Structure formats: C-alpha cells, structure tokens
Amino acid sequence: MSKSNNYLALRSRSGRSIINGNWAIDRPGRYEGGGTTFTYKRPNEISSTAGESFLADGPTDEILDVYMIHQQPNPGIHYEYIIPEANVISPQLPPHRRPGEPFNGQLELTDGTDHEDENLHRETDTHTGQSTRTFPVIQPGRFPSHQPDNQVPAVLPPRRNREHNWKQVGTTECTTSCGKGLRYPIFHCVNRISHEEVSESYCDTSTKPTPEEEACNIFPCPAFWDIGEWSECSKTCGLGMQHRQVLCRQVYANRTLMVQQYRCHHLEKPETTSTCQLKICSEWQIQTEWTSCSVPCGVGQRTRDVKCVSNLGDVVDDEECNMKLRPNDIENCDMGPCAKSWFLTEWSDRCSAECGVGVRTRSVVCMTNHVSSLPLEGCGNNRPSETIPCDNGPCVGKVEWFAGSWSQCSIECGSGTQQREVICIRKTEGSFDVLNPYECSFLERPPSQQSCYLKPCGAKWFNTEWSTCSKSCEGGFRVREVRCLSDDLTPSNQCDPQLKPEEKEPCNTQDCIPEIDENCKDKYYNCNVVVQARLCVYTYYKTACCASCTRVANRQSGFLGRR
C-alpha cells in the first residue's frame, strides 16, 4: 500500500481475523493464517516513503479477504500473486510477420477468449482501476515450420485500411484529487467518415499515438494532521504514559510535506500524550490498624501502615500502584479540650491609629469539653480584655497623599478610563492642609487614573478622515472609508445600516474667483461708478478701472464657475 494513514487488515472468509482485526492495530511481525505465514511490515512513518505490506510465500488453502482501515483517501494498493501453471503457450511468430523481422517478444491474443489458466504475472492498481496481463514468450532464433498440437494458433487481425484512424476521445481520471496528479489521453479507433467507434483491429496499431501524461489537479491538498503511532507504555504495569508524534502535513506534487502547524488550525489537534495501563500489577494494602492519638487531649494525629503490594505479595514502590486510590495513612484526632478556660491570641502588632491614641487587639475564645467554642459567658465573668490602649505620639505635621473617589467611566461601553484627584496634605488635629505635591514626593503616589470596562459595545461604525475636495470652488465632493468593526476591531456585519455615516459629501460650494493679472488694478477709488455707468466699453475707463471692468466682463461671459 502506498504511504498513508490507512492500515491493511487480513481476515479469512469464515470471519477469523488474522492481522489488524477488531479495529485493533497489531505490531509488525509474522502471523499464521490461510495455510501459510504472512509477514506484516509497517516502515517507520517519519523516514520511510513506503507504506504497509503483507508478504507470504504461499500457497494458501482458503480464501482470504484483504481490507483497508480507512483514515484518509486511498492513495493506491498494489497486488502481486502467481497463479499455478496449467497450459504453457509455446513461442511462435504471429502469422502476419515474416522470419527475420523485428519482434518484441510478446504475443497478442486476438481471438477474444479470456485465458485464466496460463502462467502469468498480474498487477492491479486499485487506485486507478487498471490491470495488465503479459504473456511471456521466448523469442527463438528460428521457428519450426510445423505447429505442435498444444500450441495456440495465432489469429490474423482484420485487414486494416485507411477508412479508419485513431482519435482522442477523452482522458483518464486524474490519479489524485489534489496535490498534482497525472492523466493520459484515451485513443479509440473510429471511422474516418462517420466518426463512429469500431474495433481497434480496424486501425493500424503501429500508428496509434503514444499517450503522454499531463498534470491535473495541481492545487495543493488541504493540510491534515499526520498522526504517528503511540509509543510503548512507560511502565510495564500500573498507570504510565505514552506519546505519539502529531505533525501538520500537506500533499503537493505527489510528495507529503511537513508544513507550519497554523495550516491545520481548522482541525482539532489530536492529543500527543495519553495515560496507559498494560495491567494491574500491584494494589494498596492496609497492613496495620490506626495508632493511638499522638496527644492525650486537644487535637493530635494518628497513623497506620499502607503499602503497595505486588501480585506475588512483595512490597514494591508506591509508584507501581494507582496514587489516586491510595488510602490515607495519617489523619487528625480530637481528644477534646484539655481544660475549660479562656484561649487567647497574641496582641496585634500595629496600633489602630497611626498617630495619637489608638488600641491593639486580640481574640478571646471560651473552650469546653464538648464543643470547640461557647458564648463568652461559658467561662465565667473573668473574661480577659480584647483591647489595650496604645499611643504613637501626637499627630503633628504628618504628610501623606490623599486620594478622592473615582469618577464615572469615560465611556458607556467597552474599555474606558476613570479619574480621581490625588493631593498632598498635612494632617493636624481635626483638619488638614493642602501642600505642593513635591512635599509628598518621598511617598508612593496612588494612581490618579485606571481603566474601566462596563459592558461590551458590540459592533459599531468606524470611518477615516475626509479626503481632499475634488474641486476648489463651485461644488466638488470629498470621500472617506467607512467600516463596521467589532469590539476586538475585527470586521463585522452587525452594525445598524441606518446609522452608517456618509461616505461622500459635497464641498467647496462657493463661487470661483477668477485670476486677475497683478498689473490689472483700479487707479481710482470710485471705479464701481464706472461699472454701474457701463463705461468699461471705452478704452480709457477699461484701463483706469482694469480690475473692476475685468470682473464684470468675466461674470458676463460666464467664466465664473468654470475652472
């Protein structure tokens, strides 16, 4: 079998599994079945380019079935076998060849019969569905003039003429569905006039075109996880580990290449490690009873012996047993309180006030013989104090940072920020003074800003800045790009189309001002009167009031608005 993730399986016609039966994969080796011994080979999946194979010297004494455990498309299976010799075809030249002419040493049977008993070598490719049969013929130096009775008489082919020729009628199927396969043209003998297919015997076989291969389905195959076989269990008994190699591969140009793992991201990656247990070789045994409690009163501990024992009764390492099932060999035991009295903790280390008068505290518990604690009245009225006064000195000139409360989040959804006021103050008795932040620089300053996240915003519209206007006056337009993006800034189609910003708008709608020669100026301040009196038609006024007369002339000629 060509190299693949598939497995071969062998079973007798009676249903008895010989190799890889019951969906379990056997190790490579020798297996008895069908009256012979089969050698099962499975080359190293990493370094070898060959696939699995069954080999046997034979003969078999019963019908055997070969199966394939399917994991991926079948890349091809190759069979070779020998049929027992019956009648042997004696060598002879075809009748239409004269002695001395070149002969390729093969005899073509043209009588239409199917010879099943000849000694032949058969090859079949299940992937392409093609089969060939070759009859070996010994080419002698000379041929006898007579034919023995056991020879197969050659049949003369029909007379060929030019009324028929070879025509390509199609191509074979591609050898692969992807990753670059091959296909070949198919030639049939046809009538030159009617183009109807006829028997190949009507055409000259020497003029039949030789099929030339051509590439097909050259696109790469989808990447797949190439799963190796599990390694042997790390332990011969008990719970162990086994590993396998999982590689991302892709088929192209009839080669299986190892590619980056991201090409297989569309597939769930199989596990590379697994627990295994070949057999239960040991178990936990409790060998002693619990010991007495380690204390006469109060809470102590007691122990017992727990050992891992093999099937032979020997004590072995704990790792040979399942640690999850190990019985406890130590536990707490409560012998009751040693006395009915007050139980106290140590005084707290810090005073409750950083300056001035404060207190230090401790916990007080009443213990009895029956329960862990009782209301404080259970031990009488001699209850020890839970507080003690402490004084860290007067609160004079103490400098510290003061942080206000956080503001609301800067946005209603998504990630925003919150602000708060942080100032440097000096505490005095009952009041404080605001100082320059420099006065608190020796102290760690609390943050005045933090991020906040109220809820997801969902998808919303984003747009670029407007482009430059297409015209400088009299109505142009400008454009921008608008996209719908989700919270993680990836493209989305969940935005409301009604809220989509405009992608195009008009701009520069003002009138165009014509360019006037810098030497064309008004020499008088009242040139507007010249324009109103329509005196610009005269050369004198046209020169004296050049700018005003030029503007009115351009307006009348329709220059404005056309730039």
Automatic annotation (TrEMBL):
SUPFAM superfamilies: TSP-1 type 1 repeat. One of its GO terms (biological process) is extracellular matrix organization. Residues 516-553 form the PLAC domain. Signal peptide: none annotated. Gene3D superfamilies: 2.60.120.830, Thrombospondin type-1 (TSP1) repeat. One of its GO terms (cellular component) is extracellular matrix. GO terms for molecular function: metalloendopeptidase activity. Pfam families: ADAMTS_spacer1, PLAC, TSP1_ADAMTS. Coiled coil: none annotated. It is found in: Secreted, Extracellular space, Extracellular matrix. Keywords: Extracellular matrix, Repeat, Secreted, Signal. Its main location: secreted. Residues 97-133 are annotated as: Disordered. This is Secretogranin-2. It comes from Platysternon megacephalum (big-headed turtle).
